[in-house]
Amino acid sequence: MTADTESIAEAWRRRTLQRGSVDFTMMYVAHDAFSRDLARLLRAASEGHAHTPEARATWATFSRQLHTHHVTEDTSLWPRLRSVVTAGDEMAALDAMEAEHESLDPLIEQIDESLHFGHHVAVVSELTQLAVGLAAHMRHEEDAALPLVERRLGRAGWAGFGKDIRRANGGIRAGAQYLPWVLDGAPEPARRSALSVLPQPARVLYRRMWEPKYRASTHLI
User: Fold this and answer.
1) Could you say which DSSP state residue 214 is in?
2) How many C-alpha atoms does 215 have within 13 Å on its Cβ side?
3) pLDDT interval class at 168 (50, 70, 90)
4) Can you tell me the distance from the alpha carbon of 16 to that of 26, in angstroms, rounded to the nearest whole number?
5) How far, in whole angstroms, is CA 166 from its chain's centroid?
6) Residue 134 region, left (φ>0) first, then alpha (ψ -120 to 50), else beta?
């Protein structure tokens, strides 16, 4: 894997060119949130601040969300696709997705251990390795796996995966924590698109309670 040097603006331009009938906005903003948190963590670690309350809280949220994201893909999205794809190149793409997860997930445990024992140099190195690998994986997923979802599963199949990942995240109650986190720094059109699917009462709660509470919480900015 190689480093992905796309800016957020460049990524959204590429995503716009790939737009089809399935709305992948929530996947895209999740990918951006992972990249955002890793950039913040790397900056903090490089400055010797990997063990501050803000850094620890950011790492805890990031690692929990990435674990849930990958596990739900492995148990819900990839099996859905494997049940309908037949071409060899399509199967190879799914094999690659699972292999990339297997290569990335152990880094989470390594970073946990380095943080626990105060291995500052190792934390920077391991965060860098994770940032490079995860960026390449997410770009690969967007370019190879999501087009498979578009062709083989369509809106209904994507909606089924969406229900599974919301359930894995803890349902609507967890949305109070997840939505402000995932939309932190998201482009305004993506924010509007993500929030538009919420019932009006939930949008009001987001603006008046959920987002302000997240902004006031302990995390890196």
Assistant:
1) H
2) 8
3) confident
4) 14
5) 13
6) alpha
**Would you say the C-alpha torsion 68, 184, 10, 150 has a positive or negative sign?**
positive
Architecture of the domain defined by 8-171 = Up-down Bundle (1.20)
Give ∠ CA 63-64-67 in degrees, rounded to 5. 80
Q: pLDDT tens, 99-127?
A: 999 999 899 999 999 999 989 899 999 99
Helix 53-72, helix 25-46: angle, nearest 10? 150
CB count within 10 Å of CB 201 equals 8
Is the Cβ–Cβ distance between 152 and 22 less than 8 Å? no
User: How far is Cα 129 from Cα 38, in angstroms, rounded to an integer?
Assistant: 11
Q: Which residues of 17-30 are buried (b: 16+ CB within 10 A; e: fewer)?
A: eeeeebbbbbbbbb
Give the SS3 label for residue 199: coil
CA distances from 115 to 35, 124, 191 (A): 19, 10, 33
AA letter at 16: T
| Cα of 22 vs its chain's centroid, Å | 18
Terminal Cα distance for the chain, rounded:
28
Residue 94: helix, strand or coil by DSSP? helix
Percent helix, strand, coil in the chain, to 5, is 80, 0, 20
Q: What is the pTM of this model?
A: 0.94
